């Protein structure tokens, strides 16, 4: 479904952050990007989504080359993004945030509608008239996930899915992601909670200084303490 091949990317001044990142996600798979802070995970997501123009390499989605397309064009292909920092619309209500992004990019009868998202996140249903700025961090993260689902994506990307959230909210979000996985939605996930992501994901891609240094299943990661100690622990 998503193929990232030898991706090169960086920021102003000619600095390069990604040095040939490659990985793939199949239909219905959950894949994580792992690594310490500053290793290139968010840069990878930004390059995939067109928020950062790649300096080289290729990004393909469902067989079509989307490298360097504008972000809205990539989103229209069927990728939903839950960005780091949530980035909900602060002056729109919960309902307005959700309706603002509504689309049916998967074709057929839409799986995700306003009633469906509010049923998935009862807290949002209780606060559907509240402004985005008046929500807690956990509620904003639920709203960001719901907003991405309202595009009815084929692939959902979450950058720091549960960072900084209370344990009860984290547990609720992990349960939601497990339900989405069971429905067959492909997911690319960045998070630091190794125990949770090992239960959820099919495969893991470990990035160190802009390069993929390890990839494997949850079972293989559990059996590789040297990978966790060298590349994941602070």
Task: Give a nutshell description of this structure.
The protein has helices spanning 41-48, 71-76, 94-100, 114-120, 122-126, 137-149, 167-182, 194-200, 218-222, 225-232, and strands at residues 2-10, 16-25, 30-34, 56-61, 64-65, 79-82, 155-159, 186-190, 203-208, 211-217. The protein has 234 residues and is an alpha/beta fold.
Describe it for me?
With 234 residues, this protein is of the alpha/beta class. The chain has helices at residues 41-48, 71-76, 94-100, 114-120, 122-126, 137-149, 167-182, 194-200, 218-222, 225-232; strands at residues 2-10, 16-25, 30-34, 56-61, 64-65, 79-82, 155-159, 186-190, 203-208, 211-217. A six-stranded mixed β-sheet has the order 6-7-8-3-9-10, with helices on both faces. A hairpin with a 2-residue loop joins strand 4 and strand 5 (64-65). The protein starts with a strand and ends with a helix. The mean pLDDT is 95.
